[in-house]
Amino acid sequence: MLDEVVACMVPPLGKPSVGDDGRGPMGKSLRVEELSDDEVKELESDSKFRSFGPWQCSDCGHKGPFRRRLYRIHGKYELTDDAVQDAFRRHMYQHHGLGNIFFRTIADTGYVDTAFCGKCDSNLIVYDLLMLDAAKFLVDKLRSK
Ligand SMILES: [Zn+2]
Q1: Of 50, 68, 65, 76, whose CA–CA distance to 128 is shortest?
Q2: Domain that residue 96 falls in
Q3: Which residue has the higher pLDDT, 48 or 103?
Q4: How many domains does one find in the chain?
Q5: What spacing in Å lies between the alpha carbon of 14 and ligand 1's midpoint?
Q6: Which phi and psi angles does 15 have, rounded to 5°?
Q7: CA 54 to ligand 1 center in whole angstroms
Q8: Most buried of 12, 87, 95, 129, CB within 10 angstroms?
């Protein structure tokens, strides 16, 4: 089930500038490091980070909770660049088995963001702007003054 989903989410192989050996567009090895629970908590305290996140499972419609997994990207990459994103998608699929990832930049650091359904364990989670969460943050902020 997951394999099938993953296969259609991964961009087609064969762009000449990007090898399949985990090397990025600049010929450097891509390095990502999974965050610890404490680091995830710290990141979740950032309002920009929290304003976008897992919203709904594409497979079963479950609306959370989700198991979140986050990876810090080592080095500076233009994460809005398609070739860079392709290289990371391929890397995350081949080395971490992740077929559905999102790119985040928080405080000048790049992250790979992904989530699994708490109900059916699918990785095909739709991310969206979490306006409720953002509004809640503002309320919390006002209350703390
Ligand atoms: Zn699900």
Answers
A1: 50
A2: 2-143
A3: 103
A4: 1
A5: 31
A6: -70, 125
A7: 12
A8: 87
What is the whole-number distance in angstroms between the Cα of residue 123 and the centre of ligand 1? 8
Q: What is the pLDDT of residues 63-90, one digit of tens each?
A: 999 999 999 999 989 999 999 999 999 9
CA of 119 to the centre of ligand 1 (A): 5
Contact 9, 85 (CB under 8 A): no
- In the predicted structure, residue 17 carries a pLDDT above the cut 80: no
Cα 80 to ligand 1 centroid, rounded to whole Å = 28
- For residue 63, how far is its CA from the centre of ligand 1 (angstroms)? 8
pLDDT at 12 over 50: no
Distance 68 CA to ligand 1 centre (A): 13
pTM, entire model: 0.72
